[in-house]
Amino acid sequence: MRGVATTAAEAADGADAVILSLPAPEAVERVADELPRDVLLVDMSTGPPSLARRLAETFEAALDAPVSGGPRGAESATLTVMVGGSAESFARAEPLLRELGRPVHVGGPGAGQAAKLCNNLIAGVTMAAVAEACALAAAEALDPALLYDLLSSSTGDSRVLRTRFPLPGADPAHPVASGFEPLFALDLIAKDLALAHGLAEEHGLLTPVADAALGEYRAAQEAGLGRLDYSAIYLVRPG
Predict the structure, then answer these.
(1) Model confidence over 173-193: pLDDT tens digits?
(2) Contact status, residue 232 vs residue 180, Cβ threshold 8 Å
């Protein structure tokens, strides 16, 4: 049995494929620099499409394959895997990725990252809106459990609402019930919204709603909440 590797190159020695899942693009670049160029590189981190395209040019086979579904999806092997890269590389990696969930080939290099940033833009903005609504509900002394039941069967429903309702007493499976223990950290959603903003700028697009949400996540980070679940944005409300 091999011991713990001390470098990325040592960890990848003899491997046919290497999977990365790292918290920041800078970490991906540092690790990728140490890897042999003939491995199948599968980067499951969330980063800019431009980095995915650079990796595709550097390695013989590379895929950007960010995921959605969080720790619970990983535990149950039900992650959605958004894959960018060549059809040939996807065919090589698909059996491996199917062990983690449902891989979908979105397009060429960078397409998986672009899809993930679209997803997380929606998730981050939705959570900010849910937090505002819950602050209003708390001010009006509405019953959290009753409100959650109403919203989850009305037009305000969303997967974010159903997994991250930030008022206590509605659902014990939500992060608020465990002191906002992170399913997905606030630092990470802020990073992804910033990446989405940067991608929009590359295309000459504006993202005013996402930018406003990012401002609130930044305020939460400044309040020391970055390592909590991103539903902890509820704890920092203007007004």
Answers:
(1) 999 999 999 999 999 999 999
(2) yes
Amino acid of residue 147: L
Position 1 pLDDT exceeds 60: no
CATH 1.10.1040.10 domain range(s) in the chain: 115-235
pLDDT digits (tens, 9 = 90+) for 110-136: 999 999 999 999 999 999 999 999 999
Question: Ramachandran region of residue 53, left (φ > 0), alpha (ψ -120 to 50) or beta?
Answer: alpha
Per CATH, the number for 115-235 is 1.10.1040.10
Q: What is the mean pLDDT of the chain?
A: 95
62: which strand partners? 41
116 classed as catalytic: yes
User: Considering 53, 105, 116, 174, which one is annotated as catalytic?
Assistant: 116
The whole-angstrom separation of Cα 188 and Cα 230 is: 8
Q: How many helices (H) and strands (E) does the chain have?
A: 10, 6
Residue type, 223: A
- The CATH class given to the 8-107 domain equals alpha beta
Are 18 and 39 in contact, with CB atoms under 8 Å apart? yes
- Cα distance between residue 201 and residue 239, in whole Å: 30
> What is the C-alpha separation between 170 and 147, in angstroms, rounded?
8
pTM strictly above 0.70 = yes
pLDDT of 42 = 98
